[in-house]
């Protein structure tokens, strides 16, 4: 039987090619309704996972007359699932990452462009609240298996929204391979908001009717008509093309009304996803709640049995002969005395539950820690005995915990890289958007046009790094600084003492590398043929070393004109002369080999006063004589 791109809903045929030019209006909505029937199991499971995290039993949720969600919780529970989720959430999200653009072997201008891209992307994250949304997305991935954040472009601005697990739909045939080309989103929007965004369709939006079953599937039948007043269900879809990004499609529909249809030129939809653990045959992930489901269910059953036993048998029973004359109400309060005649009454307190039930419960609690990778001490916020005063021991303990969650941490970092790439790509689509970034004084405004002019065909790598190099506790800080001093990265004890109060090393690194970065800038300017100034405030030793390498590289690979290389050569000669004086206040240490030593690989650049054979009078072929 030949393959057919159509699907069936009842007796109707649904064409899954909603993104083609000849697709009818409403094709996306009909395709959504077909997909919806294929995601019923996943959506119902998500509701159970949410109820388990909220500790709602026995029902999922119910609504009062005002539409406020209330829980049905009458039984005592020990929700290790929630405790494990919250503990892992704190462990992963406490390490905030910073996604940076970097370039290997680039010029100073390329590195400056990378820094501007870093500032621009940071400004985008601050404007959209992406960092907070990313933490929420990770929590959703623990509960539902996959968390989503959508980025939208309206009015030359980028916004971000959390997407619920039932709002994102993909084709079952595509999600088996993990990279679906079509992604759909279903969400209820306020009609007034839609009319402002699409004024040409204002009347149609006001009068559009959406079947009740669409809302019931989205909200689980928990909302009545008064709750849905003024809302309308919108289906939004993206289709990407691997071979040609310009063939991508973005469409929005309400029933048979098409609100917008445009090209989508980015390689991915504007939805960033995070997964707790990846399934082998699905685009959606598996959450921590699902992994602990069996153990939590058994623990709840045992707790209910123990609770019932406590209610029935935990109170003492008094056995007295029928002829005993006990006053009624003698046992109404503890510590009362009893008047009796005849034989003494016998007080018995039965066993509420067997010891095996309690031991089995403890074993299940331990197994829940083994499965989740979160120790019982971590759930209670305690350190193992003996680690309180040892920074090194805390670092070793943290390394063990980090290995357990290495894949989770990598997913956390990769999601930051993905949303950074997406937001920068969307800024390029908009073309003229601007954000507030860190400036020379306080804050300044940076426009994408200023960056795009310098981009051209430059390629940058995007990586995520921890924002702070120093650990959070005082013991951890001290141990980390000791490592840096042993490695020779910090040599001044004053700097080490200052770092104990500084959680981020960026300011320290910027100050310490300013001289070298200025030397790199002078080399770049010289190779561009610009006039440069060399003085003793520079890192002259580094300038001579790096400048010599740049001179040799430019001469060998013929990447620069002779005139530009000659400008650099003169600057290097000036640096050697300044270094040889030794009387300039604040002059750098003597160059390797002595002040009058020539520079290896660049013959003739020696200090003044050296014997003949030092700086040659003849420059490169065809160049003027160097005086």
Structure description:
The structure is a single chain. This protein is an alpha+beta fold. Helix content is about 45%, strand content about 15%. The protein contains 22 helices and 20 strands. The strands form 8 sheets. Strands 8-9-10-11-12 form a 5-stranded antiparallel β-sheet. A hairpin with a 6-residue loop joins strand 14 (about 275-280) and strand 15. Helix 3 (about 80-95) packs antiparallel against helix 5. The chain is flat and about 120 Å long. The N and C termini lie far apart (about 85 Å).
Mean pLDDT: 76
- The helical percent reads 40-55%
Spatial separation of the terminal alpha carbons? 87 Å
| Uncertain regions spanning at least 5 consecutive residues | 58-74, 583-627
Rounded Rg: 35 Å
Main sheet: strands, sense, barrel? 5 strands, antiparallel
**How does the helix and strand content classify structurally?**
alpha+beta
- Characterize the quaternary organization of these chains: single chain
Name a few traits of the molecule:
627 residues, alpha+beta, 5-stranded antiparallel sheet, 3-stranded antiparallel sheet, 22 helices, 44% helix, flat
Set out the fold topology.
Elements: E1 6-9, E2 12-15, H1 27-38, H2 40-54, E3 62-63, E4 69-70, H3 80-93, E5 97-102, H4 108-128, H5 130-144, E6 146-154, E7 157-163, E8 168-170, H6 172-175, E9 182-190, H7 191-197, H8 202-207, H9 212-219, E10 231-239, E11 248-254, E12 257-264, E13 271-275, E14 277-278, E15 285-286, H10 288-291, H11 293-313, E16 317-319, E17 346-348, H12 355-372, H13 376-379, H14 391-404, H15 406-430, E18 434-438, E19 443-447, H16 448-455, E20 461-466, H17 474-486, H18 493-499, H19 506-512, H20 514-527, H21 540-557, H22 562-581
